[in-house]
Hints:
Elements lengths: L5 H6 L2 E11 L8 E6 L1 H4 L1 E6 L7 H4 L3 E5 L5 E3 L2 E3 L2 E2 L1 E3 L5 E3 L14
Antiparallel strand pairs: 1-2, 1-4, 2-3, 4-7, 5-6, 8-9
Amino acid sequence: MNTIEWNDFQKVELRVGTIIAAEDFPEARKPAFKLQVDFGNAVGIRKSSAQITDLYDTKSLLGKQVVAVVNFPPKQIGPVMSECLVTGFHREDGAVVLAVPDSKVPDGTRLT
Length: 112
């Protein structure tokens, strides 16, 4: 395992946001959804592509709070400009389990 310095960790902005829109992303090479995540006044609404179709559907994602990296540069993913990276954990079967807070917190709250 590589170690990092505290200053390196502080550069990564992990914030909580609420998914306000989720739709299928048929143009993606691997099954994915197009998401819009509201990070409140701190960051605003950001778009993302997420390969989380094994365990989630568009309806179950609406209103779900997630943890995302909001300070990566935008990345073009097919026709979508991804503006944040929604985080999760790969299970042994390859399915992704979203990283979520276990209680509601204000959108935009930064992980510390």
